[in-house]
Specification:
- It contains 5 helices and 2 strands; from the N terminus they run ββααααα.
- The chain is mostly helical and about 180 residues long.
- It has one domain.
- It has a two-stranded antiparallel ribbon with strand order 1-2.
- The termini are close together.
């Protein structure tokens, strides 16, 4: 939660209308885990019901293990860790803006997913050892299909699923980090 307390204005103690924003770091850590779990659950359920073929835990986990079962488990925890990093960023933005709201969280979620779908996904084939490249040709030994721009290689509904999941992530953080 963002804790606001009145402090001195322009260096003078006790002057009105000046605020120092302190972030509840315990809240950030817990709420980051909750928001990431919500995002991950949405992505996994969407994949299980056939809305997308994107298996985020598998995609992340194959960075460290070629075994699909081990990769999914590792990928889940990698995603929780990455989600904590993003939660820290969201919390820093909330602190800089002196507010945490659901709509600000949703806006950050849209920026987050836009970068993921347009920058990170297309670059993945260049850095992930098990993701094929569209330019590698038949000699490639990669076993995972590249996500492509907007993740469309994993299905036409993948961008919509990703947007919904990241909106839920941002809204969750905006609500959970709202001051009392």
């Amino acid at each position: 939660m963002i804790d606001r307390r009145s402090v001195g204005h322009a260096g003078g103690p006790g002057a009105p209308n000046s605020e120092v924003v302190r972030v509840d770091w315990d809240g950030w850590a817990l709420f980051g885990l909750i928001a990431t779990a919500v995002l991950t659950a949405i992505m996994i359920v969407a994949q299980m019901v056939g809305l997308t073929r994107l298996d985020l835990p598998l995609l992340l986990g194959t960075l460290v293990s070629p075994d699909p079962d081990r990769a999914r488990a590792a990928g889940f925890f990698i995603h929780l860790g990455v989600g904590q990093g993003f939660a820290l960023g969201y919390t820093a933005v909330f602190a800089l803006l002196n507010r945490a709201t659901w709509w600000l969280g949703a806006g950050l979620g849209l920026i987050h997913v836009a970068i993921a779908l347009t920058v990170i996904f297309p670059l993945l084939a260049g850095v992930h050892p098990r993701v094929a490249s569209t330019r590698a040709g038949p000699a490639s030994t990669a076993v995972l299909e590249p996500p492509g721009l907007l993740g469309l290689n994993y299905g036409t509904q993948t961008p919509l699923v990703a947007v919904v999941a990241h909106l839920a992530y941002g809204v969750a953080l905006g609500l959970l980090l709202t001051p009392d």
